[in-house]
Amino acid sequence: MDLSPEKYTLSNFIEACKNPEAFKHELKKRYGDVQKHVFYREHGRPTNIMDADWDNLLLLDACRFDYLAEHNSIDGELTAAVSVASTSNEFMEKTFAGETFHDTVYVSANGFSHQLEDGTFHEFVSTYPESQRDVLDSELYRNYRPGIVREKAVEAYERHPDKRLLVHFMQPHGPYFGPKAEALRERLRTNQGLEFSAWKSDADVTSRSDGMVYLMDAAEAGYVSPAELQAVYVENLERVLEHVERLVERLDGKTVITADHGELLGETTNLYSRLTGDRYEHPGYVWTPELRLVPWLVVPWENRRDIVAERPVERDDVDDEVVEEHLRALGYQS
């Protein structure tokens, strides 16, 4: 169904009413088109990360500026930047699609990165290679953990010291790790009879089944309060920052820490949430501070690296089923 502005006709409106989800999606986009100009006036225009000056850029998925400002443990100059997007797929489309960055190696735990064209970067490194298509879900989930991403990033840096390094951690995005998150899941299992299809315990992840994927679903259903969800979000932010700090210590050059987008964590203070009732996650094409203001932390450095562009390294494709499984695990697909 084409709902572009030139197609706003009576017949198309009638057709849209038959597809409420598509209609709602279009309304969100049009609302976003208006709201972004208001946002520009207050916060400035978005930052294209690939145009910025850095040798190493570390992306923390769904990391809000206000939360990093409160919980950051890494030395550096912190300011707020405006993201080009409010979801990862929108971020990648607006930042990478149709471009080439042959001076950059991209290490990613985000499933949407596999939708980019071959040859976009000098090398693309996934935390879940094609050979894992038949492994247990516990292996898939383990590869979201920040330690795995850090190890892959160090290996890529050592292979390509003359390339810019772009590293995409999944935290503080869910599914949430850590003792607070596991205690909350266990309470919901015991008291509410809820089963989370992604989890058996923090250490033992089971196969998916019908049910809730992770704690964000429980919050949307009213089983978890905003304060409880925010606590596990902070737990995962602090968890990833430990690994980010260790990675920063291994890298030469200028390092910047930022995010692809933010996260709604139950607030009702922004106009979007009051109008739509959407209080959680990160819907696309939305302009609120919770979703668009991301950290821009410049870490002190001594030496810059000499960066050169070279023809891309051939990448190993990941099986489509593996990508879809990862996106479902993150709550993007049913």
Fill in the CATH topology of the largest domain.
Alkaline Phosphatase, subunit A
Q: Based on the structure given, which CATH architecture of the largest domain is correct?
A: 3-Layer(aba) Sandwich
Based on the structure, what is the oligomeric state of the protein chains?
single chain
How many separate domains?
2
- How many runs of DSSP E, i.e. beta strands? 9
InterPro entries: Alkaline_phosphatase_core_sf
Protein name: Sulfatase
Organism: Haloterrigena turkmenica (strain ATCC 51198 / DSM 5511 / JCM 9101 / NCIMB 13204 / VKM B-1734 / 4k)
Topology, element by element:
Layout: H1 10-17, H2 20-43, E1 56-60, H3 65-71, E2 77-82, H4 88-95, E3 101-108, E4 121-126, H5 137-142, H6 146-159, E5 164-169, H7 179-192, H8 215-220, H9 226-250, E6 255-258, E7 264-265, H10 271-276, E8 280-281, H11 289-292, E9 293-299, H12 320-329
Parallel strand pairs: 1-5, 1-6, 3-4, 3-5
Antiparallel strand pairs: 2-9, 6-9, 7-8
